[in-house]
Amino acid sequence: MTSEIQTKTSFLHDPSNPNLRFLEEVSAHTAGVSRLEMCIQCGTCGGSCPPAADMDHTPRMLFAMIRAGFREEALSSNTPWICVSCYHCVVRCPQGVHIADVMYTLKSMAIRAKLYQDSTAPDFSRSFVDNIEKYGRSYEFGLATRHYLKHFPLRLPGMAPMGFGMLTKQRMDIMPHKIDNIDQLQAILERAKEVEGLS
Amino acid sequence: MTGPFDSASKSPERIGVYVCHCGTNIAGVVDVAEVRDWTEKRLKGRGVIIARDYKFMCSSLGQEMIEKDIQKLGLTRVVVAACSPHLHEQTFRNACQRGGLNPYLSELVSIREQVSWVHTDKHAATDKAKAVVSGGVERVIKNEPLEPLRVPINEATLVVGGGIAGIQAALEIADAGFPVYLVEREPSIGGHMAQFDKTFPTLDCAACILTPRMVSAGTHRHITLMTWSEVENVSGYVGNFTVTIRKRARYVNTELCTGCGICQEKCPKKVIDQIYEAGMGYRKAVYTPFPQAVPRYPVIDKPNCTYFSKGTCKACEKFCPTNAIDFNQQDELITVQVGNIILATGYDLFNARRIPHYGYGRLANVYTNLEFERLSNAAGPTNGEIVLRDGKTKPKSVGIIHCVGSRDRNYNNYCSAICCMQSLKFAHLVHERTGATVYNFYIDIRTTAKAYDEFYQRVLEEGTLFVRGRVAEVTDAARKPEEEGRLIIQVEDTLAGKQRRIPVDMVILSAGLEPRKDAKETAKLFGISCSADGWYIEKHPKLDPVATMTEGIFIAGCNTGPKDIPNTVSQGAAAAARVLGRIQQKEIFIEPVRASVNQDKCSGCRICNNLCPFNAISFIEDRKVTEINAALCQGCGTCVAACPAGAISGTVFSNEQVLSQIDGLLMLNLEYMKEAPELVAV
Amino acid sequence: MNDKYLYYPGCSMESSAKAYSESLAAICEPIGLHLEEINDWNCCGATEYIGISLTPAYSLITRNLALASLQADGTRTVVAPCSACYLNLAKADYYMQERPILGENVNTALAAGGLHYDPGSLFIRHLLDVIINDIGLDKVKSKVVRPLTGLRVAPYLGCMVPRPDYEHRWSNPEYPNELDRLLKTLGAEVIDFPLKTHCCGGHMTQIGPNTAFELIRRLVSSADQYRAEVMVTLGPMCQMNIDAYQGEMNRHFHTDYRMPIIFFTQLMGLAFGLNAKQLGFGRELVGTREMLQRIGVEAPEPIEAVPAHKPRMKEGLPMPRMPGDEEVN
Fold it and tell me: What is the ipTM of this complex?
């Protein structure tokens, strides 16, 4: 698995380097400069995190695991999927670690490594992205219904008043909206995937 | 290229070059033997008659080698390629002098800081070392024999800041029999230490150990105490500073005042004391900050005085039994002559409001460390009762947060050094006086000095609960009934790996130490340098920690960085020892490294006037030219570079010397070039 | 000088946040805000695309900035009303500078669509920032004809506008005062809401409802403790989570909160004397009738000034003062 990811992320680093550590790999896939190596394990992130109680590991523990090279454990953790992107940890981190963006990185790596256990969250992201790639816009109605139908069918009756309300208040479109130049967007995304080594 | 390398201009000098290994510091990267061989061969034409390498040139054997060569080979110039001139320039100059050569006919060039420590490619580093040596040789040819300047030392010393560092320094010097001016901007000396209740780790009462020193300083026959005063101007140079001090109007005639305190009792105007009581208590508009203040005379705080703002009141004047109140007093400007200056200007506390999620200023029962010192102080606003902001309720549980504003790149990167011990002290005091449950929230416990870790053990034994985790937030937003009406500390207990919410009644923030808000202006006033943060920079952080790069100006205490009381006192004493050493010498030799103005060339443009960091440049109005005071000039070269007319030059760094050195540095490149370089017209 | 702003609405403005869109349209004219929509903009990917892949996600976002550049015509500011869109656009611009390889790759992708974006060439700003700092509170104040006197509002900014704030556009990432100041200018009584930048659960309402319900409960119950009559927000996702999922949250915890949440632009419109329907009122699921009635009343009953648990002490030890206290309170 490791080698597969390494060869696919061609632009980010030298794929022929066998010594690429897990931490470096995570940093390489992160949008900005991750500063992961600067973590002093103070726990500001885990203390700040609103849904920390629902996480397998606090972000701090996850960073210790990444540093220790516990690849499978880290990518199987539900922590990045529970992250709500509130950025409390990011602005409070005394070491300036880009924590929220590292969480996104871990999600994408977990998907590629097929190591996530709970399929709900990745599936939601995937459906959301499918809509964007097809229409150029998000499509809340289709997404929400499909998603709840698939993952929380028992909740649907409970949610019906809310869905009904959203429809009658005209806050949800039944038909998706498509941008004019969808061909251009699709070409851009295709090229982006090539660059990323995904196609 | 014109030049120095033509055989026609062969140097008449007899030069010795010494390449140092510095153990493996240099030899580990630079091929020292190759540098020596190359120098001997290639620079022969430049006058090098001998080149040697040696393991430690700074050792006595290394120095003797130079001395012998001067005598036996008749060297007229010496170049040592070793470490930075900061470290050993004086060593090798002395060696030359002992060998009978004028010390200024030597050059120390750095192949350690500038070569071996900053490069890994051995081949390239060796080449660079050759270039550096070649530059040194070209430069030393242009050196002139100089004599150091001799300056008499004024016996008086100025100590700025009357905290424990300044008091210690002043007493040491005064006890030796020399006069001291001790200047303090608050109404009393004592500084931060006077605000504390107990001192760690021994828990002696701060006032009990400090006030005897304050009294000694206040009554010492060799100490002139100037409180409610600030230094306004400094001119002159080591041995001969002229200092102007603004003695602010006290509106109290200190000749008549007995310090009886009736004025303070009668004054109707009560204001929050933001300085001494850290905002926790009140004082009057006429006040001494605390009962043991030195001097005992009060001051009238003009902006808050009813008479000054409304024109009526004068209660103090009416009741003063000795007619000491004088509303017509004016500020005085006092000029003193001193030979040395010690700056002991202290620190400010980190402003805890900058971390809004810790709630200080918003949540009543969040206190800063200084506020807590006042709260626990028997002479404080609650007579030492540790209570909530309502003034009466004793807390049942208290959270103490370490590292507030410290070790955090959002605020201050550094460790504030005293917070761990201070927080442990707080834990002990809360436990002892209230029996409350105490939590200490820490990242690391740093208890490195004598008897410090033993104190940590003691606090552990007392049952303080330690939570390893930097606190994320302090909030009053309750989630559960047991959190209602309390302060909730939210933190990851990193040892348990779980987020916790701990309800407490009181939170104490161990806010870090920061440079004084005006540290940079003070540094400029005295012509010393400070870091970007504002901490003053030592001449050498390890080997000369109380001196500055400016001769005659010393620093002590927290203005160089956070320090505990023992270290602060040591520094005060150390600075005094340095000053006493100077005074005993009666005169001082100062480097003849000086800039001078060719007044025929000077256009009077004044560009250089404000650039001098040492205030050595003055403008002579009637002749419209600039002049440099040789004793004040430290030879930094700023003015030389800035002068558009090229009218300023410096001994030891003349244009000729600098350009020759550059020629020397480039020589190696010329060797490698197949063709002669094209000169680009500038 | 071109005084227009390039406007990136984001998908929600056309669906779940129609009230935001309608009220914004209504207040533009009175405050002299000239918005020009970016032609053929696409979705920013919310918080989903960046969790799947890096370059495609940032290319998706940056296509909008590239289109905006083409339309710039002398202006350099892109305004987004939605928190997530604002953050995504701002982050893309920032990270493409912080890590140039990302910028190069994104531009390689954009080139496939004949587009290009120079990171740093546009200023990405949130609508509230523009209203406070460019239009100014004086201008806003001059348009107030129906001050919201006596209405207790909880300012709720959520996460993604004040954080991470790499460009330092806000007064503080945890306790920014911009929204408070605006609402005070409208005459409302603004509570010192401790959770003003805490999380509404984001996409967790979709993928982990129990996690989200807990976060929604914290916000609503805290606003309720402070006796706020309405929460005022500036992000479609925040409004949607707290409004549309409040019923489900109540069922989950067996509670009965009815805390309306509306967009700040709606309150601005009310204060400007515009009619409620035009401002999108009626689209919310937690009704605002009581709140509206309160403003309709000519002389509202006096309200106790501060919440009970934060007393101003008459005696005891003095409270440390905060800089800017006068301005905000």
Answer: 0.86
